[in-house]
Amino acid sequence: MTQRDPAPGSLETIRRFVNTFDAEQDADALDSPESLERFLLDTGLFGEAESVTEDDLVRVRTVREALRALMHANHGDDLDPGAVPLLNDAAARAKLTFTFDPSHACAIESVTGGVDGAIGRVLAIVYRAMVEGTWERMKACRSDSCQWAFYDRSKNHSSKWCSMEVCGNREKARTYRRRRAVGA
After folding, report:
1. All structural domains of the chain with their residue ranges
2. pTM of the predicted model, to two decimals?
3. Which of 46, 107, 109, 153 could be stapled to 40 by a disulfide with Cβ–Cβ 3.0 to 4.6 Å?
């Protein structure tokens, strides 16, 4: 799959996380507790190796797909009604809290460990992006066979595909063929 440029700052972690599932290849990089542990360590979402279970893997994959649903909603699509309660439950399990520092800044962070803490760090990144106004640029490719997460860098926030050269051209070709078939 051809990818766009990385997302800015910590949103790259979110893009990488959502893109652990490749719809086009029907391949999941998070196919075992061990692969999840490696991903969490590689992205810094785990500070040290912690135990990961099959239940953790299922929960993480569910959070990933709920985030993809939010990214589809950033196109103006209807939000999957199950995504919000799922993310709220994940935030509660992560025990997200606000903290203040001596410079009068505040942050949201997870105060639990393990996979729930890692999920909390993911959700904290999403929260910060929403507050900063950058979340609306995180989108999922509109191609049903792709759905790759990407950061929309267009001036008017109108990108629909992860790559115009790949998914955009495929969609244009499909539209052209449909029009030709109707006119024939």
Report:
1. 11-183
2. 0.89
3. 46
How far is Cα 90 from Cα 29, in angstroms, rounded to an integer? 21
Binned at pLDDT 50, 70 and 90, residue 2 comes out as: very low
DSSP-assigned beta bridge partners for residue 157: none
Residues 6+ apart with CB under 8 A from 111: 95, 96, 97, 117
For residues 89 and 110, what is the distance between their CA atoms, to the nearest angstrom? 13
Among 8-22, 80-94, 145-159, the range scoring the smallest mean pLDDT is 145-159
Cβ neighbours for 47, distance < 8 A, ≥ 6 positions apart: none
Contacts of 5 (CB under 8 A, 6+ apart): 151, 153
Q: Which superfamily does CATH assign the domain made up of 11-183 to?
A: Jann2411-like domain (1.10.3300.10)
Number of other residues whose CB lies within 10 A of the CB of residue 64: 21
